[in-house]
Structures are given as C-alpha cells and as structure tokens.
Design goal:
The chain has 21 helices and 25 strands. By secondary structure, it is of the alpha/beta class. Among the domains are: about 55 residues, no CATH class; about 220 residues, 3-Layer(aba) Sandwich (Rossmann fold), CATH 3.40.50; about 120 residues, Immunoglobulin-like (Sandwich), CATH 2.60.40.10. Strands 11-16-15-14-12-13 form a six-stranded mixed β-sheet. Strand 15, helix 20 and strand 16 form a beta-alpha-beta unit. Helix 7 packs antiparallel against helix 15 and helix 8 packs parallel to helix 10. The longest helix has 17 residues. The relative contact order is 0.10. Bound molecules: beta-D-glucopyranose. Beta-D-glucopyranose binds next to loops.
Length: about 750
C-alpha cells in the first residue's frame, strides 16, 4: 500500500476535479472514452503541454541544459512530465501544482534513469548481463521498481538495449553486451521486472527502451556519433533487442542521439513510425533523448521550430527538455509545419500512458511517504554482484585463497565504496552503506595491509574529467615503494585496479582501454617482487589486458559491482562463492582489434595465423584475449556426448550435451549453444548464440542439457529485406564459451516451408 486513502483523498479533494474518474486497469474502450472526453476539453497549448518533458530546479543533471520557469508552466497546464526530480517532497509539491492548480488537473508523470537499481545499487548492466541469469535480472528490475516507485517514480529510462561491439564507447557499461540473442532475453526480463503484471500497480513503473536505434554503433566508439549501416545488418544484429522489449510490452521508447544513415534517430520517420509502429505494432509513446530535438539544429537540419515539427511528424511524441514545439507553437501552426491533428496523436499517447499507469485514478499513487524496507534487497545486491563477477585467469589454481592468508591489498580502488557503484547511480543514497573491497576482505583475514600504490591516472585532462586530483595523489615513487614493501611482507598481493565510476558511462569514450600507465607501473613493481599478484579489476568496459594476463597469477573482473561489491569480491577470492559469470562482450588484445565480436563472418580468405593473403593482422593474432561467453570457476566441468538432430515435425533442432562436474565444489555452469549456417544464399556469421542454460551441478554430478532451437530462429534477412529460413546444413556447437565447443552438423529440411534456397 503506497499511500493511505485518507491522505490521498485530502490531497485530491482539493484538486480541480473536472476529470471523470478513470480505472487504471479498465479496457481500452474505457480508456479511449476517457481520453476522448478529456481531449475535447483541452486547448492546443494544453495538448502541447502533455508532450513536453522537463527537468526541475533541484534536479539531478544528466545533460547540459536545465529547464526554466517550470512551476509556472505546470500551473498553466503546459508540462506533461518532469524527470530527475531529487526528492519525494519536491515531487509531491510539483504534482500538487499540476493537480490542484492547472485548469484540467492532469497529473504529471515522473521519470528518472533507474538504470541498475535505485537506492540499492546492483552491478552495472554490462556486469549483470554476465550473470546470464534472466530470473535474477528480472528480480533486480522489479526491486528497483519497488524502491523507485516508493519515491514517486512512474517511469524509468531503462532498459538500454543497444548492441555494443566497441569498448572505447563509455556507455557499453549500461548495455548487455554484443549479442542480439542474449540482449533480447535481457531486454524482456527487464521490461517484465519494471512493469510487473499491471502497470497501474503502485509498485510498477513504465519501462523506456533506449536508445532507438543503433546508439551503440557510433563511429570510432565516440559518443553521439553517426551510424551508417545496412538495413540488413540492423535487422540481423542490432534491432532484435529493441523489438524484444517492445514485444514484452514496454510502454515507451527513447530515440537515440545518433544519425542513422543520414537522418538523426530523433527525426527518423522510418525508425519511429515505419519500423516501430508499422512493423512491430508498438502502441506506446516515444520520447526524445535529452535536448536531442534541439540538437537537430546542430545536425544541420534547420531551425528549432522546423526540426521540432519534423521530429513530431516523424513519430516522436514527447520532447525531453528542448520545448521545441511548446516554444514555437504559433509559428509552427501558422507556417503549417504541424497541425493540431499531429499534436493530438502525440498527446493522446502520453495521456494513454498516464492512464495505464493509474495516474488519473490516483495522481499520488507512487508519491507515498512510506519507505520501502530496503534491508531485504541487500541479499539481492550480494547475489547480483557475486553472479556478475567473471574469473578471467586462475594460474596454478591460486584462488581461492585460504582464510587468514596475509594479504597486501593495493590500489586506489581498494578502499572506496562509491567507485563500486559505477555510472548512473545518482540516487544511490545507500552508497554510504556500501561495502568496499577492503572491508569485504577483512571478513576473511585479519592480516591485511592496504596501500594506495598509485593514482588512478596522471593524465591531466582525463583526471579532470573523472574527478581525480593529481596534486593530492602523492608522490608516485613513494606510493609504489610503500606498496612493494607491503607486498614483500605478504603471502599474496591483491591489486584492485582499473576504472573509477566516471571512466565509463555517458560521454566517457576512451582511446586507451588498458590500465592507466600509473597503475601499470605499480603492477609491474608488484609483479617484480615475485609474489603472486591477483588483479581485481573494477571497470565499466572490456579492457586490454595482455600484459596483465601474462604476469598476474589471477584476474578477477568485478566490474562496478554495486552496493555489496566488496563482500562479493571477497566471497569469490576466498571461495565462499564459486565464480560463475561469463563475458557478454569480447575482450580485445589491443584497441587496434576493435570492433571485435564473436559472431564475425569468415570472409573469402578465412584467417590463418600470420599467413599472407588472409584476413587478420600481421602484428597480432586475430583472436581476442578473452572471447564472448568466457569465464572460469573453481570447478572443472566436462562436456561430452554432444548430439544434434533436426525434428522436422516440430521444426526444431534438438541438441544435447552431457556436462559433469568433476570437482569437489558445487558449480553454476552456463552451457551455451551456437549455430552456424554452413551454406546460405547470403554470407552468414560463423556462429551465433541461439540458446543457453544455467545448470547447478553438485560435486561429481552430471546432467544432460538439452536445447530445442526453432528453425525459425535460424533465418536471416535477405538483401531485399525478407526474413527467410533456408534448408541446408547447420553447424551446432555447445560449450562453456563461444570458442571452446563441441560441434555436430545437422541438415534442416525446410523445403516445404521455404523452398527458396538460393542463388536463383
Ligand atoms: C541519456 C539518456 C538518459 C537521459 C535522461 C541522456 O543524456 O543519453 O540515456 O535517459 O539523458 O537523463
């Protein structure tokens, strides 16, 4: 119960109750009637108000521009939604302005970037995706909705489902990695988690799928940069997760900043209307990204009035911060740039969203003052962090460490709580209650010495961007000497290095994705002591770790693990938890291999190492350092007896493998199934993920893991944009990662369904 009825009636009774009472769960017909009636009373200015989304005075800032004069505009009915409002009290007051003081009392909708938790922070999305655990991901989204709605959030700008294949881009941290199949499953899970069974429930918030489309494919890994891509590739590799989220019922979609084949997504009719609504049947509303309507002028598409009209006509319903139509309404109407009918379409969609969210029935539905008991989400934060950690190397089985090992804990990130939260943790009031790696490890050993060892960076420009004060970092040589001395007195060195929270996320593209030179020098000195060095990495992107892989005894990728990160890292280091995370983004050897992903095509001259006239590099292997799907545990799991056959009655490939835990520890194993189309009428990737299963295996236990892959999932888009599934031979692979697999060939006879193999 989010708000006592008594409290609600006091508030609402004072409002101008000109609105008919609406039931949030009522049928579409009832909703239509309600909105018809409401819109018949609205002036055109009020309708434009509904499509206007703004920030508020004391907002979190997630862009450069702050909206002005908002309170007055709300009372004039000229605002539809407000986002980034910090406190519940502010939200209640703002809602009162809308409900009690505007002519029609239409409630506002409150948005926020609830990206990986609200108060309780989970690992960043890229990390969480490494759990390959859809149930966990759904539970984290649902818990985030519970916390956020208790403080007035109706609408989250999440999930971000952009496919990413370039780790230079800082926003890979917010993504679910490189693969469209896995990305689609995660997108669905998040939408289900946020929206629940009923959007009108006080614990549900509306999802906003972003950034539509192709934001992750910007040139050079630069944020906001252009994308030029064949439709064929879009449909095959980049659009599926957006569609999956839409199919899962996401209520809204955010357009992306980037240009798509010459037309910025914000004004791209083909994307926003033809694909999204025409092909996919999306019936929610679209919203621009932060000031992206206004930025169409920077793209060189015309004046604010012109570009705003163009975006609206392209199918963009709500304008975030630019107030493009709102500020130019008269001019737009006079010049015939937009008509009232255009505005009606967008306005109706926003009102529908509010109706579905139950806001007309109770504008204060999510503005309760009863706090959620967050205590219960601590265990979930720990589970999420543990399952997100990926063990990249474990030479000589040095991990897990024995209790009371003498540990030299080194590094600028070893004793911080805040940096573990990662990007987009603005509302993380509980960061103070977070657990540093130092405090996590101290639960396992009383013999722990911590030294900083090195500043995160000594690059002045970078330091300024990421909030590091080089002057206060101390003398580099003394820092290293102190760390070396601690190392010499220890059994093992645990070096916590990598990126702080600001090194990934929006506007954080980097050309160097290895450890910063200051940190690398420290690591070299530690390795030179001859002690085993366990590198614990905090990072929001895949990093280049060739040297580290060669010289460190073990590498544990903890990402930005969130509130319980320190405990989770310690649990992994000391074997309380058997690591189970698997990479969802390929780790290159060096930045020159980027973009890099597992589902590449063979080319006409497939790679042969260091052979002339073959694809690849002459100075570096073509293979990544760590492939997609990769991750170790403390157990050994054997894969044997793979089978695969085509069941023509059911039109599915049935494949199986036997997995056996030959170790004396229980393990959670992610069994992955890939399929490659050997001969097709177009070139196809060597393999693509088509299924995965997580199995829990007790010591010595074995299980037969079965996959049933619909033949319909094996198709592709032809050059003339038809989706076909051709008959022919497919290579099915099953294994613990994308490169280490067993394989079998099957012939899928689809001739009755799709006779058209081929090169006619
Ligand atoms: C980001 C979006 C975010 C929006 C609102 C933009 O800068 O690109 O992902 O939802 O700000 O904060």
């Amino acid at each position: 119960m989010k708000m006592s009825l008594k409290r609600f009636s006091v508030l609402f009774a004072t409002a101008l109750c000109t609105l008919p009472v609406a039931a949030g769960t009522a049928s579409d017909e009832k909703m239509d009637e309600f909105i018809d009636d409401l819109m018949s009373k609205m002036t055109i200015e009020e309708k434009v108000g509904q499509i206007t989304l703004v920030t508020y005075d004391r907002s979190f800032m997630t862009g450069e521009t702050q909206s002005k004069g908002v309170a007055k505009k709300i009372t004039e009915g000229r605002i539809g939604g407000v986002f980034n409002v910090r406190t519940l009290e502010d939200k209640i007051n703002i809602q009162k302005l809308a409900v009690e003081q505007s002519r029609l009392g239409i409630p506002l909708m409150f948005g926020l970037d609830v990206i990986h938790g609200y108060r309780t922070i989970w690992p960043v999305p890229l990390a969480l995706s490494c759990s390959w655990d859809m149930d966990l991901i759904e539970r984290t989204a649902s818990a985030a909705a519970d916390e956020a709605t208790s403080e007035g959030i109706d609408w989250t700008f999440s999930p971000m489902v952009d496919i990413v294949r370039d780790p230079r881009w800082g926003r890979v941290a917010e993504s679910s990695g490189e693969d469209p199949y896995l990305g689609s499953r995660i997108a669905e899970a998040m939408v289900r988690g946020y929206q629940g069974e009923d959007l009108a429930s006080p614990q549900s918030m509306m999802a906003c799928v972003k950034h539509f489309a192709l934001y992750g494919a910007g040139e050079g890994g630069r944020d906001y940069d252009m994308v030029d891509m064949s439709p064929n590739r879009m449909y095959q590799d980049f659009l599926p997760p957006y569609k999956a989220a839409v199919d899962a019922g996401a209520g809204s979609v955010m357009s992306s900043f980037n240009d798509v084949n010459g037309v910025p997504a914000t004004a791209n009719k083909w994307l926003l209307t033809d694909v999204l609504r025409g092909e996919w049947g999306f019936d929610g509303f679209t919203v621009s990204d932060y000031t992206s309507v206004g930025e169409l002028t920077e793209h060189g598409l015309g004046t604010l009035a012109e570009v705003s009209a163009r975006a609206l006509k392209a199918g963009l319903d709500m304008d975030m911060v630019s107030e493009g139509i709102a500020g130019n309404l008269e001019y737009c109407l006079e010049k015939g740039l937009v008509s009232e009918a255009d505005i009606d379409i967008a306005c109706r969609r926003i009102l529908e969203a509010k109706y579905k969210l139950g806001l007309f029935e109770n504008p204060y539905l999510r503005l309760s003052e009863e706090p959620v008991d967050r205590e219960k989400y601590r265990a979930l934060a720990l589970e999420a962090a543990r399952k997100s950690i990926v063990l990249l190397k474990n030479g000589n089985d040095i991990l897990p460490l024995a209790k009371d090992t003498r540990v030299a804990l080194v590094g600028p990130l070893a004793d911080t709580r805040w940096e573990l939260m990662g990007t987009w943790a603005g509302a993380a009031a509980m960061a103070d209650e977070g657990v540093s790696i130092k405090s996590g490890i101290s639960r396992y050993t009383s013999s722990l010495v911590h030294t900083v060892g090195a500043p995160i960076t000594d690059n002045p420009g970078l330091a300024r961007m990421i909030g590091v004060n080089i002057e206060r970092s101390g003398d580099p040589d003394s820092l290293i000497a102190e760390a070396v001395s601690a190392a010499e007195k220890s059994d093992v060195v645990v070096a916590v290095l990598g990126e702080n929270a600001k090194m990934s996320g929006e506007s954080s593209s980097m050309t160097w994705i290895g450890l910063q030179p200051t940190q690398r020098r420290l690591l070299e000195a530690l390795v030179a002591t001859g002690k085993d060095v366990v590198l614990v990495l905090l990072n929001g992107r895949p990093m280049t770790l060739e040297w580290e892989n060669e010289h460190c005894a073990a590498i544990v990728d903890a990402w930005a693990p969130g509130l319980q990160g320190g405990n989770a890292v310690a649990d992994v280091l000391f074997g309380e938890y058997n690591p189970s995370g698997r990479l969802t983004m390929t780790f290159p050897r060096n930045v020159g291999q980027v973009p890099i992903y597992y589902s590449m095509k063979s080319t006409g001259r497939p790679h042969i190492p260091f052979r002339k006239y073959r694809t690849g590099y002459i100075d570096c292997p073509i293979e990544p350092l760590y492939p997609f799907g990769y991750g170790l545990s403390y157990s050994k799991v054997e894969y044997t007896g793979m089978t695969a056959e085509y069941d023509s009655d059911a039109s599915v490939i049935r494949a199986s493998v036997s997995v056996r835990n030959t170790s004396d520890r229980s393990v959670s194993e992610t069994v992955q199934c890939y399929v490659g189309d050997i001969v097709a009428s177009v070139t196809r990737p060597v393999k693509e993920l088509k299924g995965f299963r997580k199995v829990e295996l007790a010591p010595g236990e074995s299980e037969t893991v079965e996959f049933s892959i619909p033949a319909d999932d094996l198709g592709f888009w032809t050059p003339d944009m038809k989706y076909v599934v051709e008959s022919g031979e497919f290579n099915v692979e099953i294994g613990p990662d994308s490169q280490n697999t067993l394989s079998a060939k099957v012939f899928c006879d689809r001739s009755s369904v799709c006779p058209a193999k081929i090169l006619e």
